[in-house]
From TrEMBL:
CDD domains associated with the record: GATase1_PB
Assembly information from the UniProt record: In the presence of PdxS, forms a dodecamer of heterodimers. Only shows activity in the heterodimer.
Name of protein: Pyridoxal 5'-phosphate synthase subunit PdxT
Entry's Gene Ontology cellular component terms: cytosol; glutaminase complex
UniProt KW Hydrolase keyword: yes
HAMAP family for the chain: PdxT
Pathway(s) annotated for this protein in UniProt: Cofactor biosynthesis; pyridoxal 5'-phosphate biosynthesis
Keywords on record: Glutamine amidotransferase, Hydrolase, Lyase, Pyridoxal phosphate
Phylogenetic placement of the source organism: Bacteria, Bacillati, Actinomycetota, Actinomycetes, Candidatus Nanopelagicales
Coiled-coil features, chain-numbered ranges: none
Protein's gene: pdxT
Amino acid sequence: MKIGVLSLQGDVREHIKSLSDCGVDAQAVNTKKQIDAISALVIPGGESTTIAKLARSFDLFALISDRIKSGMPTYGSCAGMILLSDVVNDAIEGQETFGGIDMVVRRNAFGRQVDSFETDIKFKGITEPAIRAVFIRAPWVESVGANVEVLSEISDASGVKHPVAVRSGHLLATSFHPELTGDNRVHKYFVEVICRELASFK
Ligand code: GLN
């Protein structure tokens, strides 16, 4: 099983390490040939507008978007979540996403870089102990379509709950960065629960 980590910008190495720790063959991908050869994809944290622009520049945008929409298991963390979302609030003008998950996310929802924080969260499908979630200028999910399952949510300063992890069939997205904590249970969930259960997965 070969899983690619989209290597245009962002914390690629950390995702490769987390996936390797789960026992899968993970490699950085940034060419059409490499993307054609993978069975699943991870879109790292970083900066969503930069990743989208680079995907356009390298002529990878349509390929990635098509593969995501035609069933390739894909996990996006933070900027990766934004890139998997069909609609983005607080986007820069003309910002594009690969799309695939029927949801609206808000970029930079928790505030500026200095408002980054860590907290313990519950994650449906992953048992105790709680997951230490690192939020770095993170998005949150504002609304989801009928086929999107919320796996985790946290409350904002006013006590309003916002989803921070969602699954839509073969697609997984988290606002936070499990690749930064050394706890690989979210990656394991992606590999064991999402990738392996799909009949099409080779
Ligand atoms: N704020 C970033 C964006 O809009 C995401 C931050 C992150 O990935 N840590 O893409």
